[in-house]
Structures are given as C-alpha cells and as structure tokens.
TrEMBL record:
<feature type="domain" description="DAGKc">
    <location>
        <begin position="19"/>
        <end position="147"/>
    </location>
</feature>
<dbReference type="InterPro" id="IPR050187">
    <property type="entry name" value="Lipid_Phosphate_FormReg"/>
</dbReference>
<dbReference type="Pfam" id="PF00781">
    <property type="entry name" value="DAGK_cat"/>
</dbReference>
<keyword id="KW-0067">ATP-binding</keyword>
<dbReference type="GO" id="GO:0005524">
    <property type="term" value="F:ATP binding"/>
</dbReference>
<keyword id="KW-0808">Transferase</keyword>
<dbReference type="InterPro" id="IPR045540">
    <property type="entry name" value="YegS/DAGK_C"/>
</dbReference>
<keyword id="KW-0418">Kinase</keyword>
<dbReference type="InterPro" id="IPR016064">
    <property type="entry name" value="NAD/diacylglycerol_kinase_sf"/>
</dbReference>
<dbReference type="InterPro" id="IPR001206">
    <property type="entry name" value="Diacylglycerol_kinase_cat_dom"/>
</dbReference>
<dbReference type="InterPro" id="IPR017438">
    <property type="entry name" value="ATP-NAD_kinase_N"/>
</dbReference>
<keyword id="KW-0547">Nucleotide-binding</keyword>
<protein>
    <recommendedName>
        <fullName>DAGKc domain-containing protein</fullName>
    </recommendedName>
</protein>
<dbReference type="Pfam" id="PF19279">
    <property type="entry name" value="YegS_C"/>
</dbReference>
<dbReference type="GO" id="GO:0016301">
    <property type="term" value="F:kinase activity"/>
</dbReference>
<dbReference type="GO" id="GO:0005886">
    <property type="term" value="C:plasma membrane"/>
</dbReference>
Length: 305
C-alpha cells in the first residue's frame, strides 16, 4: 500500500507512520521577493513539534501540478502550497471537487488568496494552521474552463502580468509597481461586448478573492464561499486619474470611482474582435480565444486554514 514507505527523515527519529492526512508541502523556490529557505523552515517546524510531513520543491513551472497529482494518486489528501498565488493555482487546480484538503504557507509576493482567507503572513503561524486550522470550503472560478482561485482577467492587468514574467524582473511588490508605471501611460483601452452590451474597458477582473494581493482590493466585496464571482470593470479614464485609482484600489474603495462598474454573478461573457491575452492568478496566458467565459464553481475546494 501507498503509506508503507517512510519518506521523510524525521520518521527515523519519531516512529510516526505516514497517513492519508499527512500534509504534502509543495514549495515554489522562486516565489516571493524575500529569500526564505522554505524547506528548512518547514523541517524545523515539523521537528520542533514532532509532526510528519512530506516536503517537495518544484524544479520548473507546472511541476507543482505533477507533484500534487502524483501524491494524490498515492493516497495523500492534504496538500500545502508554499509560495504565492501561482503556486496556489498549480496545487489547488489538482484538488478541485475531490475529498482532499488544501492549505497555504504564504511565501509569495502578493499572496492574494491567503490574505483573503486571513491566513497569517507569518510562516510559522501559517504552519500551525496547517495542523490545527479549521476545515472550510471555498468556491473557485473558471475562465474559459481554466481554474483560478484568486483573480483572473483581461486588459491592463494581463498586460502587466506578461511584462512582469517576460521582462526578466525580480519578484516582489516594488518591481511590480515599476512594471505598472512603465506600461500605464501608453496602454490603450479594449473594445468588447460584455454580457451582450458594447463595452470599452481598461481592465476587466473576475474575482473569486477580494484582492490581487498585497491588499490591492480590486473586488472589495468578493466573498469566497458565496457561490458567485465579482466582476470589476475599470473603464477608460484620464491618465491623471491613475493616482486616484491607485488610492481607491489600496483603500478598498474602488467601487466609489465613477470609472468603475461592479457586478456580481455566476457567469459573465466577454467577446472581442481578436484573441485576447488573459491573466490567471497573476500569470499571463497567451491569447487563445476571442470569447471569454468566466464562471463560478461553488464550494469546489476544501480547506484547512
Ligand atoms: N521551480 C520553479 N521554477 C520556475 N517557476 C516556477 C517554479 N515553480 C513554480 N513556478 C512558477 O512561478 C510563478 C510564480 O509563483 P508564485 O505566483 O507562487 O509567486 P509570486 O509571483 O512571487 O507570488 P504572488 O503570485 O502571490 O504574487 C508561477 O507562475 C509558478 O507557476
């Protein structure tokens, strides 16, 4: 049977057998701006508390998906993403509508989902939640059938996600702000048909969580288990207004802007004249469709937080 092996070193010290509820930690070593030795941190926590865990580190993009799938097939039912929203997406996308539980150690740059779930930003406190947290459940979003857990969308945010990923930038908030500022003044709006109505937009965000990360509240009223997606449309606005928009975003008041439309629903459509760049949980996806369909999948992910 699957659990007959004792993979983790501590098993030699503490005679505890692995079980299906032994957490599998999936570390993204490139996540986050701070250089944290996540593996050492987790090993020390497990050792100090005489707990068991399996620790894996990804070696390339999408490796988190492969590792999660492998351990799920071996019978494990508790997975922990160690990183940011991209890592969350890789791990949690393999657990949708299964009996497995999901937790997060927020060691990314923005940590949008972890912040919305109020998971402590202190890694040791977050580790404690992995073992002693409450069971819960959340909705997930689908954008053209691709799962997202925090936010997904088109327009300026997707443009920035691509510039950030392809521009050889270090991770972290300040480098992201540089990318935003360098693209903001030249960015043109997009023409579309939003839910059968013509709409010119700067960005359209479908939000499962209430923020992009770093407490940038793009959908301040989003609730993770309300069976709905929130949708924030930022319309064409004068460039001088960018400062105001930034303030409203960071203060959770974006709905007060006269350039913002805010919707809540279970499904949205957005048609364009050509295939359009998207972002999913902050990672860009090359254009593959001119027609965007965003939907919610209610209560599809089990949590321990
Ligand atoms: N070993 C790896 N090497 C390169 N890329 C990886 C590796 N493991 C995961 N990735 C990718 O790294 C990207 C960034 O990860 P993640 O989003 O977790 O960190 P972040 O961008 O710093 O945090 P946040 O999304 O919260 O701002 C994701 O696209 C993920 O798929």
């Amino acid at each position: 049977m699957v659990f007959s092996f004792l993979q983790f070193n501590f098993s030699q010290i503490y005679p505890i057998k692995l079980s299906s509820q032994t957490p599998v930690f999936i570390i993204n070593p490139i996540a986050g701006a701070k250089k944290v030795n996540s593996k050492k941190l987790i090993e020390e926590f497990l050792s100090n508390n005489k707990l068991m865990g399996i620790i894996e580190t990804t070696t390339e993009k999408n490796h988190g998906k492969t590792l999660t799938k492998k351990y799920f097939e071996e019978g494990f039912r508790h997975f922990v993403a160690v990183g940011g929203d991209g890592t969350v997406n890789e791990v949690a996308s393999q657990l949708i509508n299964t009996e497995a539980y999901f937790s997060i150690i927020p060691l990314g740059s923005g940590n949008g989902l972890a912040r919305t779930l109020k998971i402590p930003m202190n890694p040791n406190e977050a580790l404690d939640k992995v073992f002693n947290g409450k069971k819960s459940v959340m909705d997930i979003g689908l954008i053209n059938d691709l799962p997202f857990f925090c936010t997904a969308g088109v327009g300026f945010d997707a443009h920035c996600a691509k510039q950030f990923a392809t521009g050889n930038h270090s991770r972290g908030l300040w480098n992201y702000i540089k990318v935003i500022l360098s693209g903001y003044f030249s960015y043109q709006t997009n023409q579309s048909i939003f839910c059968e109505q013509p709409k010119e937009y700067f960005s359209v965000t479908f939000a499962n969580a209430n923020q992009f990360g770093n407490n940038a509240y793009i959908a301040p009223d989003a609730v993770l288990d309300d069976n709905q997606l929130d949708c924030t449309i930022i319309e064409k606005h004068p460039k001088w207004y960018g400062m105001v928009m930034g303030y409203l975003l960071m203060s959770g008041k974006i709905r007060q802007s006269s350039y913002v439309e805010y919707y809540r629903g279970t499904e949205f459509s957005l048609r364009h004249n050509e295939k359009i760049l998207m972002h999913i949980d902050g990672d860009y996806v090359e254009p593959f469709s001119d027609n965007i369909i965003a939907q919610t999948l209610p209560h599809a992910l089990k949590l321990i937080i």
